[in-house]
Request: fold
Amino acid sequence: MIRSVVRGNGAALPRRIMKNADFEGMVETSDEWIVQRTGIRQRHVAADDETTASLGEDAARAALDSAGMTPADIDLIILATSTPNNTFPATAVEIQNRLGMHHGFAFDMQAVCSGFVYAVATADLYIRGGLAKRVLVIGSETFSRILDWSDRSTCVLFGDGAGALVLEAEDGAGAITDRGVLAASLRSDGVHKDKLFVDGGPSTTGTVGHLRMEGREVFKHAVGMITDVIEATFSEAGITAEDLDWFVPHQANKRIIDASAKKLGIAEEKVVVTVDLHGNTSAASVPLALSVAVADGRIKKGDLVLLEAMGGGFTWGAVLLRW
Ligand code: ACO
Reply:
């Protein structure tokens, strides 16, 4: 059977780093509160010339370099983002143009923090369906543009950045030992739409709006939803937590990550945590975390890696792949 195998990965971060202490004069908060409640120590914040398209382009170029490919080799770009450069056209198309790519096709995918997991699962279906051979999957966000910088309960939590993977079709035996995407499980439930949302949009206010979140409500649902979807993925693949080499969860909150890993029986040393460095970068958080663990030599060819995310909607999902 056809498998979607990772050929390369890359990341891009805005130049400016904002430490927790930098909020102390802006809103009533402290480094201690932020670290204790979330595990976040710093985040990158985009300058005016750094956009979802420019960060996505930089991450895409890095992923292509690591795959030993050029834009000419790619036939599909899927960009996961909730902070596009414009309402339309899709920022994926803008990235396609920035890469000098005038063949194939590109589109955006909007599932907030779960966007990258949705995009990898979607790319895998395009590849297995024969509609694409090599896909650039990008998660890129500039959440700093939709934050209410006077709201301490949200502005300290998010950051900007981008990450990307190149997936390529390869023949596999149809076994768990194959490289590539092995199983995926996606969920959403709009009954929760008012717990984490942006209070503007083209068809309602005609404005971009600001992020609003009932943090405690999100927290309450997160661990159960994450563990349910991961158990569904384990059962589809016929594996248990012990078979995993690496767990790369969405980086929203260290307490959610720890509680999910504990409930699933995933050993602490297998969990990749970068929330301290990047904050919550929404659809960019999983590929950014992957880029750190690949660069420092933890994730290696042949490793069994579980990706997971949960976000606004709510949306949630997991992808199991062999690197
Ligand atoms: N600094 C200091 N105090 C603060 C801050 C801050 N930055 N923010 C809130 N507080 C205060 C609150 O006002 C509250 O004060 P009160 O008790 O006087 O009312 C107190 O701290 C406790 O607030 P809680 O909201 O109960 O704090 P909690 O322990 O739940 O932590 C947090 C808040 C970090 C937001 C947590 O609820 C959380 O992480 N939730 C999940 C968020 C998440 O994962 N979101 C991303 C989902 S992915 C996506 O799609 C974007």
About this structure: Residues 83 and 176 are 36 Å apart (CA to CA). Residues 2-171 form a domain with the Peroxisomal Thiolase; Chain A, domain 1 fold (CATH 3.40.47.10).
